[in-house]
């Protein structure tokens, strides 16, 4: 574990504009899962232990941030956790006179405000090293399957016969929180709210298999990611509240066959954020919670993982955005499943 501790200091004030450049935002999101809040947080290192760790840290390659405009330098970024719970990244510009005792942090959240930090507050930053696990469990929608557009389509189709409208934002919020798609779309004062809600649900249930086939797809590169994890000796599982129809998308090319256990909504009595599904899957695999990682796209995935005692990686391919997910404190924040093989280690590391 590489840990740095330093005190907050003022920066030069030029980072906010830089971090809003399209090429900077897109590279930070792809490399470290951070859609940056404008501005950086600067730390000054004083103690010998942190200074020595930072020198060692700087010698590592990190992730390269390549300039797309003249007048900007290259930089390296390193995924970290701040105060043990906020995903962030250290940004190290490739300039000759960069202070050796200075650490510059970027995050999707305003860290100072989020942690209520005062002037010169002391802060702990931990470098994200590969996680040794025996099993990786996956959510389906928004994680393995690109299905958010399908949910929006089926919700809008169900609402139209009733003269109602559902926004994409309402659907994303429902997926992220485990709430109802229909909450708030029926005008207040209607006496038939329950009947309409039942009608909406019935229509959506009838149309879902067709909409799923027409509007959902697997994310690119999934077979390669799963094979890379299997090569490391890691068992694979699915834990999702999805209906069984979605598994049909995983049957081509033997994707479904790569999983050692599958738990869907019909297999549990309580949905996420309750940990029942995760714990049931781990029991089938014979893996302890402390030796597993759950991968999902929503805050309820983080909450369920915490309740189950497993570590959690949040992906940016579904309902939750970088800031929303960061606020719930995942262990890792990554752009997509493609980043997984590089952030886990073989189960053999657990035994040594």
TrEMBL record:
Residues 9-126 form the Riboflavin kinase domain. It comes from Geobacter argillaceus. It catalyses: 2-phosphoglycolate + H2O = glycolate + phosphate. GO terms for biological process: DNA repair; riboflavin biosynthetic process. Belongs to the HAD-like hydrolase superfamily. CbbY/CbbZ/Gph/YieH family. Keywords: Flavoprotein, FMN, Nucleotide-binding, Transferase. GO terms for molecular function: nucleotide binding; phosphoglycolate phosphatase activity; riboflavin kinase activity. Pathway: Organic acid metabolism; glycolate biosynthesis; glycolate from 2-phosphoglycolate: step 1/1. It is an enzyme of class 3 (hydrolase). The keyword Transmembrane helix does not apply. InterPro entries: HAD-like_hydrolase_sf, HAD-like_sf, HAD-SF_hydro_IA, HAD_2, HAD_sf, PGP-like_dom2, Riboflavin_kinase_CTP-dep, Riboflavin_kinase_dom_sf. The lineage of its organism: Bacteria, Pseudomonadati, Thermodesulfobacteriota, Desulfuromonadia, Geobacterales. This is phosphoglycolate phosphatase. It holds the Pfam family HAD_2. Its EC number is 3.1.3.18.
């Amino acid at each position: 574990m590489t840990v740095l501790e330093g005190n907050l200091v003022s920066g030069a004030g030029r980072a906010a504009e830089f971090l809003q450049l399209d090429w900077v935002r897109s590279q930070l999101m792809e490399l470290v899962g951070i859609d940056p809040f404008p501005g950086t947080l600067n730390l000054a290192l004083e103690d010998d232990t942190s200074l020595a760790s930072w020198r060692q840290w700087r010698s590592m390659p990190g992730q390269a941030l390549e300039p797309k405009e003249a007048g900007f330098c290259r930089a390296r970024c390193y995924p970290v956790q701040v105060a043990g719970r906020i995903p962030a990244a250290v940004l190290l510009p490739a300039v000759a006179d960069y202070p050796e005792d200075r650490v510059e942090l970027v995050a999707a959240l305003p860290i100072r405000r989020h942690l209520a930090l005062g002037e010169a507050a002391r802060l702990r930053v931990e470098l994200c090293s590969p996680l040794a696990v025996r099993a990786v469990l996956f959510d389906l929608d928004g994680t393995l399957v690109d299905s958010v557009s399908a949910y929006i389509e089926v919700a809008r189709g169900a609402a139209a016969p009733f003269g109602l409208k559902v926004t994409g934002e309402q659907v994303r919020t429902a997926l992220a929180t485990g709430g109802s798609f229909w909450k708030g779309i029926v005008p207040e004062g209607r006496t038939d709210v329950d009947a309409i809600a039942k009608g909406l649900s019935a229509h959506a249930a009838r149309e879902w298999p067709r909409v799923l086939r027409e509007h959902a797809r697997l994310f690119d590169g999934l077979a390669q990611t799963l094979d890379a994890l299997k090569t490391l000796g890691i068992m694979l599982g699915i834990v999702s509240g999805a209906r069984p129809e979605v598994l049909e998308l995983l049957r081509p090319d033997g994707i479904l066959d790569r999983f050692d256990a599958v738990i869907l909504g019909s297999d549990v009595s309580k949905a996420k954020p309750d940990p029942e599904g995760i714990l049931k899957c781990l029991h089938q695999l014979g893996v302890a919670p402390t030796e597993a990682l759950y991968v999902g796209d929503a805050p309820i995935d983080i909450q369920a993982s915490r309740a189950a005692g497993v570590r959690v990686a949040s992906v940016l391919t579904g309902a939750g955005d970088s800031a929303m997910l960061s606020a719930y404190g995942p262990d890792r924040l990554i752009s997509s499943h493609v980043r997984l093989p590089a952030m886990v280690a073989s189960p053999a590391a657990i035994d040594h």
